[in-house]
Amino acid sequence: MDKYPKQFRCCQLAICIATTLTSIHVQAEETAVSDIITVTATRTERTSAEVPESISIIDQERLEQEKMFNIADALKGTPGVLIQSTSGGSSSRLIVRGAGLKAQYGIREIMVLRDGVPITDPDSFTRMDFIDTQDIEQIEVSKGPANIYATGSTGGAIHILSKSVFDNRRDQLRLGFGDQGTRNLHLRKSYTSDEGNALAFTASHRAQENGWRRHNEYESNQFSIKGGILPTDNSELEIELSLTQSEMNLPGTMDEAQFHQFKRTGEQRDNNSAFKNSARDSDIIFFNSRLTVELDDLTLRPRIYYNHWSHFHPVTGAINVNPGVDIFGTDLELDYSHHLVGEDNLVSGVTFRQDRTDNARKYAYADILTAGPRIISTLSDRKGELLEKQDELNTVYGFFLQENLRPTDHLLIDAGFRFDRIKIEQDTWSSDTAYNYGMGNYLTIPGSGGNTSLSRSFNLFSPRIGASYKLNNNFTLFGNIAQGEQVPFSSELESNIDLLSATNRTVEVGLKGRAAAWQFDLSAYATEVKDEIIQVRTDGETLYQNAGKTDKKGLEFSGTVQVLKQTIPGELQLGLNYAYSDYHYDEFSEVVYLGRTPTNFDRSGNQLPYIPEHYYSLNLNYQHPNGIKLRVQADSWGEYYLDNANTETYNGYDFVTSAILGYSIGPHDINLNIQNLFDKRYAVEVKKDTRGDKSYSPGAPRSLMLSYSYQF
């Protein structure tokens, strides 16, 4: 009988804090600060304070200061968002309120969009290779399930908005150079005709040699053309074509002895794997078109997009060669303004997408060094025997609808849902030879190969209802109830064909405050996840299974305040971001292989690994009237468990600090960016498998980059 109060303890705490704050300040009718406009939560332009859910926005001012080699540079410090770059370059490990934890690499369970186009696969894997991080206007993070943009996502949506072709204020030349062979070059130039039509060219080059560890060079070259046409007075068409070539060597993780050596020397000279030549090299073509047509109370927003990518991806046990994935999609959106109870609007639409992979292949490594039966080292990434060929087809049909009601000037109600049907189909040919994780080498079993097929369909229903109530010019209360569903990744189904889709149900309440000298967002949530897909690491292999039930409770706070306004010239702003996370398995029986025998171990009541109970970030921003700028940010990641069995913890890290010192005069801007200012030696991620073996991903040592930009 006491489960209900326990599950909603964080929500009750947020309500108490909100009541206290509003009772103190409800009479203080300060002039509210101009709020940032967002579209990610509801597909409708709205201030962030009005959105009845947690949303974080990284604006252009912050983006211009950061190094921006990947989105981790911008999102670090965001409460509820755990993001690390384990390999540098475009590679990021991203978790939003626990969603994405199961990912062995990359980003899963979180929908990532670019200008409204999903770059997340139908089965939840996201590739960030082709995102030009220098061509970003704003990043919006919507947390929680049932986002109206998010097909099959329980973790919410991250929307990357690029610089509009119609905005010539963003034309610039940017040059950046730093230690570790860092280069960051960017050029954007646009042209606008007398009729308002526009054309923009963008080129970017990013590279790092990363000499502090072996096999971790990175280089990316990108080029894009954007066109903007005004066919009529009430319509607007934007078209983009971009090309990307990315090469990234993956250094791998370290064992405990190697990690201690790294802490002494600041260098990683080896990894804990026999596979020394892992990499991900990609070639990508991306096309996107967006049309907006306004017809009185009706606005039409059709999108059509195409993406083609190929890659060379040596990993543990196999060299993956994919000659090409073709992705076709459309999103036909309709926005209807009406007067049901006030100034209301209805957003609805349909989604279709198909991802087709033809003739993806896996090869054995040709050049290996063995000791006894085990491979102890690869000597190159040269392809050897063909192990597997695979064709895959993922198809999505979806429908979404959301009614946005304004019964009064103070009250806003959102109610809507998404329904998606996702079908995953695979045809695989396997040879008689495969990599055996237990033996640590290739094993040939005559007659074991052949043809197999996989076909699974999932129906996903994601409803949400939320409301925000404006108490006065400064304070807005909000709350929502939502459900989202998450499909298994195709490779997860290969390891466990019986995996079920996970269902996330969340209740959230909070308070948002906006004023000229301060602002804050406070929220609390209680989430129950049924059939959560869990990663199990055993004998060097990653397997997946469903946990019966997972409970997640959290509290998040983000706030800034201007200080010393009458004492010092310019503006000095202090900020605090904090997240409390209590995530545990309510019902979970983990299958562990003891030798070749599977054994069930009850993990019910255990905490989820890798998620710290406390995460906080402090920041200071200062701008002097003469153009001097300073930003300092210190991030702390609390203690967490290394495995599902909760046998051991890692202490995390405290106050890993970055600093940015800049100066602006007219169109000229210069910044010195220092990462890991105090050169701390720590791990950004530690894992432990069922055999007790630990792996460490090191945090990058102190690095400096000096950049100059000229605004045309």
TrEMBL record:
Membrane disposition: Multi-pass membrane protein
Cellular component annotations (GO), alphabetically ordered: cell outer membrane
Coiled-coil regions listed in the entry: none
Compartments, as annotated in UniProt: Cell outer membrane
GO molecular function, one term: siderophore uptake transmembrane transporter activity
Stretch forming the signal peptide: 1-28
Main localisation: membrane
Span(s) of short sequence motif TonB C-terminal box: 695-712
Family to which this protein belongs: Belongs to the TonB-dependent receptor family.
Record's protein name: Iron complex outermembrane recepter protein
Protein's organism: Amphritea japonica ATCC BAA-1530
